[in-house]
Prior knowledge:
The protein is 72% helix and 1% strand.
Amino acid sequence: MISNEIYRDGKNQSFKRDESFDVVKGLGIILMIWVHCRTEAISHFAYTFHMPLFLFVSGYFFKSRSFKKELSLDIQRIVVPYVFTCLVMVLFAFSAFDKFTFGSMSKVALYSPLWGGAVFGHLFAVQESLFIGPLWFLLGLLWTRLMAGVLFRFVKNDMVCGAIIFILAIVAKCAFEVFDHIPLSFLQAFGCLGFFYMGYLAKKYDLLNNVNMKRLLPVCLLCWLYCMTFSSLALHKCMYEGFYILDILGAWGIFCVLWVLVKNVYCENNWFWKIIQFVGRNSIIVLCIHAVDHCMLYRWSAVGSQLINLVGNIPITFARLAFAILLSYLLTKNKFLYEKIFCMKKR
């Protein structure tokens, strides 16, 4: 998601951050929050591409390193924010919720990070269902990057590499149907790997170049229409019913459409685009804040339902979006959190 790389400007080949990638990620993270606010009308549409966007970008800027260096980097950028967010959940559950739930909230918040699953699961002797919400994606991305580093290092043939990834994804899908309680979102990473690889190939073969995009885009959009009609994509459940390859190509088609739109309409001096770009650049912070909000409200569903009945789902959705963005903005002002916990760099 979550790349702090300096994006290369293709026009003058100078090292300059291409904010178009930030804007695309910003649109994706906003759509993720919108879907989590129980807006069923757009869920199927959003699931076809909103999480693959981050995998495409992460794969696009992936650099081959030794396993030790990749692990060290991923611990800084992914594991540390994950652990920090989970600690916040534990403290928040203990201080704000346990008086209403008789201690069960802090127990769930404590064991859920150890479970680390993308769906509800159980761990040890804890009877309550464990859940970390959107934080599953950080763990999935961690395994994806580590596997990609090993795979790209030792398998040089693109076709062979793609075939291995396809087989791993299908095996993970079958395994998830039987062993859906495998912790730490490990199986989900196998499904994420194909989308990550698509981003990697896009960089390698310059697929965002206008000429190459025009050749591939019509096919990808046809794949997306097929997936919208006959398939269902949910990476957190290892669900990719469009023969996996079609799901990847379909999501890539929507990514390219968004890319072209952003390239043509983005204005860095416009306040609206500034907000979207900020959200995308700091997408890991927005994700972590939303994870706390999402898990707490999900566990204390009676309060969430009462709020929705009182003011309606749309105002709640905008309020949760505003909360995630504003709190992210405040966190960026704290140098220790921004640079040491979330491993971000000031511009």
